[in-house]
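sanity check this:
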Amino acid sequence: MAKLVLIGIVLFFSSCSNDDNTSPELENEIDYIFEDGFETRENDLLELFPDNGSRWSNLQLVDPESGENKIDIESNITNEGNNSLRIYAAASDNTLSKADIEKSGFRAPEGSTVIIRANFYIASTNNIENLLLIDLECCSCWDPDVPDNQCPGIRLMMKDNDHLSIERGKILNSTIVQSEVAFPRNEWVNVVWELELSQNSDGINKLFINNHEVISESGINMPNASLFKTEFANNGIDFELQEPLFYERFQIGATANPTPFSIELFIDDAKIEITN
Protein backbone atom coordinates (compact mmCIF):
# COMPACT_ATOMS: atom_id res chain seq x y z
CA MET A 1 0.00 0.00 0.00
CA ALA A 2 1.38 3.41 -0.92
CA LYS A 3 2.46 5.62 1.94
CA LEU A 4 0.53 8.79 2.66
CA VAL A 5 2.47 11.95 1.90
CA LEU A 6 1.57 15.03 3.93
CA ILE A 7 2.86 18.39 2.78
CA GLY A 8 2.55 21.57 4.84
CA ILE A 9 -0.36 20.26 6.92
CA VAL A 10 -0.68 21.42 10.51
CA LEU A 11 -1.22 18.52 12.89
CA PHE A 12 -1.69 18.56 16.62
CA PHE A 13 -0.38 15.85 18.96
CA SER A 14 -0.98 15.67 22.69
CA SER A 15 1.94 13.25 23.10
CA CYS A 16 4.08 10.88 21.08
CA SER A 17 3.46 7.16 20.88
CA ASN A 18 4.75 5.20 23.86
CA ASP A 19 6.25 2.52 21.63
CA ASP A 20 8.52 4.93 19.71
CA ASN A 21 11.47 5.59 21.99
CA THR A 22 13.34 7.56 19.36
CA SER A 23 10.82 10.41 19.30
CA PRO A 24 10.93 13.42 21.63
CA GLU A 25 7.86 14.08 23.78
CA LEU A 26 6.47 16.93 21.73
CA GLU A 27 3.37 18.85 22.76
CA ASN A 28 3.86 21.64 20.23
CA GLU A 29 2.27 21.70 16.83
CA ILE A 30 4.08 19.97 14.02
CA ASP A 31 4.22 22.55 11.27
CA TYR A 32 5.50 20.40 8.44
CA ILE A 33 5.68 16.70 7.65
CA PHE A 34 6.91 15.01 4.52
CA GLU A 35 7.25 11.24 4.27
CA ASP A 36 7.67 8.84 1.38
CA GLY A 37 8.12 5.09 1.14
CA PHE A 38 8.99 5.26 -2.60
CA GLU A 39 5.91 3.23 -3.51
CA THR A 40 5.01 3.25 -7.22
CA ARG A 41 2.48 1.52 -9.44
CA GLU A 42 4.87 0.50 -12.21
CA ASN A 43 8.38 0.85 -10.71
CA ASP A 44 8.64 4.15 -12.54
CA LEU A 45 10.98 6.73 -10.99
CA LEU A 46 8.96 9.54 -12.55
CA GLU A 47 6.07 8.73 -10.20
CA LEU A 48 8.15 10.29 -7.43
CA PHE A 49 7.88 13.66 -9.19
CA PRO A 50 4.18 14.42 -9.83
CA ASP A 51 3.25 17.76 -11.35
CA ASN A 52 1.55 18.88 -8.13
CA GLY A 53 4.87 18.73 -6.22
CA SER A 54 3.46 16.49 -3.50
CA ARG A 55 6.41 14.10 -3.52
CA TRP A 56 10.08 14.75 -4.27
CA SER A 57 11.50 17.93 -5.81
CA ASN A 58 14.63 16.93 -7.70
CA LEU A 59 17.36 14.39 -8.40
CA GLN A 60 21.08 15.07 -8.17
CA LEU A 61 23.31 12.93 -10.39
CA VAL A 62 26.94 14.00 -10.75
CA ASP A 63 28.84 11.35 -12.68
CA PRO A 64 32.58 10.90 -12.22
CA GLU A 65 34.78 9.93 -15.13
CA SER A 66 34.86 6.38 -13.76
CA GLY A 67 31.21 5.57 -14.43
CA GLU A 68 27.55 6.53 -14.59
CA ASN A 69 25.54 7.05 -11.42
CA LYS A 70 21.99 5.71 -11.22
CA ILE A 71 18.82 6.11 -9.19
CA ASP A 72 16.08 3.50 -9.63
CA ILE A 73 12.95 2.13 -8.02
CA GLU A 74 13.75 -1.22 -6.37
CA SER A 75 11.23 -4.00 -5.79
CA ASN A 76 13.37 -6.83 -4.35
CA ILE A 77 15.24 -5.21 -1.46
CA THR A 78 12.62 -3.33 0.57
CA ASN A 79 12.12 -2.54 4.23
CA GLU A 80 8.33 -2.55 3.97
CA GLY A 81 5.87 -2.17 1.14
CA ASN A 82 6.69 -3.05 -2.45
CA ASN A 83 9.41 -0.53 -3.27
CA SER A 84 12.52 1.22 -2.05
CA LEU A 85 14.93 3.64 -3.72
CA ARG A 86 18.15 2.23 -5.17
CA ILE A 87 21.20 4.48 -5.33
CA TYR A 88 24.35 3.61 -7.26
CA ALA A 89 27.27 6.04 -6.88
CA ALA A 90 30.44 5.29 -8.82
CA ALA A 91 33.86 5.92 -7.31
CA SER A 92 35.08 9.51 -7.34
CA ASP A 93 38.06 10.62 -9.40
CA ASN A 94 38.65 14.17 -10.62
CA THR A 95 34.88 14.66 -10.17
CA LEU A 96 33.11 14.17 -6.84
CA SER A 97 30.47 11.48 -7.34
CA LYS A 98 26.92 12.29 -6.18
CA ALA A 99 23.57 10.49 -6.46
CA ASP A 100 20.64 11.56 -4.30
CA ILE A 101 17.03 12.66 -4.19
CA GLU A 102 15.90 16.03 -2.85
CA LYS A 103 12.94 17.60 -1.09
CA SER A 104 12.73 21.38 -0.89
CA GLY A 105 10.09 24.05 -0.32
CA PHE A 106 9.94 23.99 3.49
CA ARG A 107 11.36 26.28 6.16
CA ALA A 108 13.18 25.17 9.32
CA PRO A 109 14.23 28.35 11.17
CA GLU A 110 16.37 28.79 14.25
CA GLY A 111 14.57 27.52 17.35
CA SER A 112 12.68 24.78 15.54
CA THR A 113 13.08 21.04 16.02
CA VAL A 114 13.83 18.92 12.95
CA ILE A 115 13.55 15.14 12.98
CA ILE A 116 14.71 13.15 9.96
CA ARG A 117 14.08 9.41 9.78
CA ALA A 118 15.05 6.87 7.15
CA ASN A 119 16.00 3.23 6.66
CA PHE A 120 19.23 2.43 4.82
CA TYR A 121 20.62 -0.78 3.34
CA ILE A 122 24.28 -0.48 2.31
CA ALA A 123 25.05 -3.32 -0.10
CA SER A 124 28.81 -3.11 0.10
CA THR A 125 31.76 -4.37 2.12
CA ASN A 126 34.16 -1.71 0.81
CA ASN A 127 35.53 1.14 2.89
CA ILE A 128 32.81 3.82 3.05
CA GLU A 129 34.63 6.37 5.19
CA ASN A 130 33.48 9.93 4.30
CA LEU A 131 30.36 8.74 2.46
CA LEU A 132 27.61 11.32 2.99
CA LEU A 133 24.02 10.06 3.40
CA ILE A 134 21.87 13.08 4.35
CA ASP A 135 22.26 16.84 3.85
CA LEU A 136 20.14 19.58 5.46
CA GLU A 137 20.94 22.89 3.77
CA CYS A 138 20.07 26.54 3.25
CA CYS A 139 20.83 27.91 -0.21
CA SER A 140 18.96 31.20 0.22
CA CYS A 141 21.25 32.22 3.11
CA TRP A 142 24.28 32.53 0.80
CA ASP A 143 25.46 36.06 -0.02
CA PRO A 144 24.23 36.69 -3.60
CA ASP A 145 27.27 38.89 -4.28
CA VAL A 146 29.65 35.98 -3.64
CA PRO A 147 29.83 33.40 -6.45
CA ASP A 148 29.58 29.60 -6.16
CA ASN A 149 26.74 29.15 -3.67
CA GLN A 150 27.85 26.38 -1.29
CA CYS A 151 24.41 25.91 0.33
CA PRO A 152 25.68 25.81 3.94
CA GLY A 153 24.33 23.11 6.20
CA ILE A 154 24.95 19.96 8.18
CA ARG A 155 25.28 16.37 7.03
CA LEU A 156 25.41 12.76 8.14
CA MET A 157 28.81 11.35 7.21
CA MET A 158 30.36 7.92 7.67
CA LYS A 159 33.60 8.18 9.63
CA ASP A 160 36.26 5.56 10.38
CA ASN A 161 35.12 2.01 11.14
CA ASP A 162 31.60 2.74 9.83
CA HIS A 163 30.65 5.20 12.56
CA LEU A 164 27.92 7.48 11.25
CA SER A 165 28.52 11.01 12.55
CA ILE A 166 27.27 14.61 12.22
CA GLU A 167 29.48 16.60 9.84
CA ARG A 168 29.48 20.41 10.29
CA GLY A 169 32.26 21.56 7.96
CA LYS A 170 29.89 23.58 5.77
CA ILE A 171 28.93 25.68 8.81
CA LEU A 172 32.61 26.10 9.78
CA ASN A 173 32.57 23.68 12.71
CA SER A 174 33.99 20.29 13.60
CA THR A 175 32.36 16.90 13.09
CA ILE A 176 30.47 15.39 16.02
CA VAL A 177 31.76 11.82 16.00
CA GLN A 178 30.59 8.68 17.77
CA SER A 179 32.11 5.27 18.39
CA GLU A 180 29.11 3.56 19.97
CA VAL A 181 27.64 1.69 17.01
CA ALA A 182 29.23 0.67 13.72
CA PHE A 183 26.81 0.90 10.81
CA PRO A 184 25.68 -2.63 9.82
CA ARG A 185 26.10 -3.72 6.19
CA ASN A 186 23.77 -5.71 3.95
CA GLU A 187 20.77 -5.28 6.23
CA TRP A 188 18.20 -2.60 6.90
CA VAL A 189 19.31 0.02 9.43
CA ASN A 190 17.01 2.63 10.97
CA VAL A 191 18.45 6.13 11.36
CA VAL A 192 16.84 8.99 13.29
CA TRP A 193 18.49 12.41 13.33
CA GLU A 194 17.05 14.98 15.75
CA LEU A 195 18.07 18.65 15.84
CA GLU A 196 17.08 21.70 17.85
CA LEU A 197 18.37 24.40 15.55
CA SER A 198 20.67 27.20 16.68
CA GLN A 199 23.42 29.40 15.25
CA ASN A 200 25.11 29.18 18.65
CA SER A 201 26.38 26.57 21.08
CA ASP A 202 22.94 25.88 22.58
CA GLY A 203 21.75 23.80 19.62
CA ILE A 204 20.91 20.14 20.31
CA ASN A 205 22.23 17.31 18.13
CA LYS A 206 21.02 13.73 18.52
CA LEU A 207 21.52 10.64 16.40
CA PHE A 208 19.94 7.21 16.81
CA ILE A 209 20.93 4.01 14.99
CA ASN A 210 18.48 1.11 15.34
CA ASN A 211 16.88 2.84 18.36
CA HIS A 212 20.26 3.23 20.08
CA GLU A 213 21.25 6.80 20.92
CA VAL A 214 24.81 7.28 19.68
CA ILE A 215 25.05 11.09 19.82
CA SER A 216 23.47 13.55 22.24
CA GLU A 217 25.47 16.75 22.27
CA SER A 218 24.86 20.47 22.39
CA GLY A 219 26.44 22.68 19.77
CA ILE A 220 25.93 24.92 16.77
CA ASN A 221 23.98 23.36 13.90
CA MET A 222 23.15 26.36 11.69
CA PRO A 223 25.33 28.87 9.81
CA ASN A 224 26.53 31.71 12.05
CA ALA A 225 26.80 35.15 10.44
CA SER A 226 29.85 36.21 12.46
CA LEU A 227 31.78 33.01 11.70
CA PHE A 228 31.08 33.30 7.97
CA LYS A 229 31.99 36.98 7.89
CA THR A 230 35.32 36.31 9.63
CA GLU A 231 36.16 33.27 7.50
CA PHE A 232 35.58 35.08 4.22
CA ALA A 233 37.32 38.25 5.45
CA ASN A 234 40.46 36.15 5.94
CA ASN A 235 40.39 35.68 2.16
CA GLY A 236 39.64 39.31 1.42
CA ILE A 237 35.93 38.71 0.70
CA ASP A 238 33.04 40.67 2.18
CA PHE A 239 30.35 38.08 3.03
CA GLU A 240 26.94 38.73 4.58
CA LEU A 241 24.83 35.73 5.58
CA GLN A 242 21.30 36.40 4.36
CA GLU A 243 18.27 36.68 6.62
CA PRO A 244 15.84 35.30 7.53
CA LEU A 245 17.91 32.18 8.10
CA PHE A 246 16.25 28.78 7.64
CA TYR A 247 17.01 25.34 6.27
CA GLU A 248 15.05 24.67 3.09
CA ARG A 249 16.53 21.60 1.39
CA PHE A 250 16.78 17.95 2.44
CA GLN A 251 18.87 15.54 0.34
CA ILE A 252 19.21 11.80 0.91
CA GLY A 253 21.22 9.11 -0.86
CA ALA A 254 24.91 9.22 -1.68
CA THR A 255 24.92 13.01 -1.39
CA ALA A 256 28.66 12.67 -1.93
CA ASN A 257 30.75 9.54 -2.44
CA PRO A 258 34.37 10.70 -2.19
CA THR A 259 35.62 7.13 -1.79
CA PRO A 260 37.65 5.22 -4.41
CA PHE A 261 34.91 2.56 -4.48
CA SER A 262 31.50 2.36 -6.13
CA ILE A 263 28.66 2.11 -3.62
CA GLU A 264 25.17 0.64 -3.91
CA LEU A 265 22.62 1.46 -1.25
CA PHE A 266 18.86 1.37 -0.76
CA ILE A 267 16.58 3.79 1.09
CA ASP A 268 13.06 3.28 2.41
CA ASP A 269 10.59 5.17 4.59
CA ALA A 270 12.18 8.63 4.49
CA LYS A 271 10.56 11.31 6.64
CA ILE A 272 11.23 14.87 7.79
CA GLU A 273 9.15 16.77 10.33
CA ILE A 274 9.59 20.32 11.61
CA THR A 275 8.17 21.66 14.87
CA ASN A 276 8.33 25.29 16.00
